[in-house]
Design brief:
mainly beta; SH3 type barrels; 1 helix; 7 strands
Amino acid sequence: MSKEQHYTLQEAMNVMKGLSKTGRSFDIVYMKINGGLGKFPRCRMIKQNLKNDKRGRYKLQFINDEDKRKSCYIPLLMSVNGIKIVMR
């Protein structure tokens, strides 16, 4: 029986930070608040905006491949680069 590769939430955050620091991008899939799936290819993390967003500490701030600023709630991340995120 083969073991499926997965990340914990902290491992996924570390992967995304590491890739962003070196100028490389990542793909994410997350659950939207309305229950749908959000998919963004070629993202890079950016500095959190805590002053203007009272919920900013719970969000992943990123730019997509069109350099548009986006965010999603960190606990709703489902996968990074096709690798599933599991909560422990």
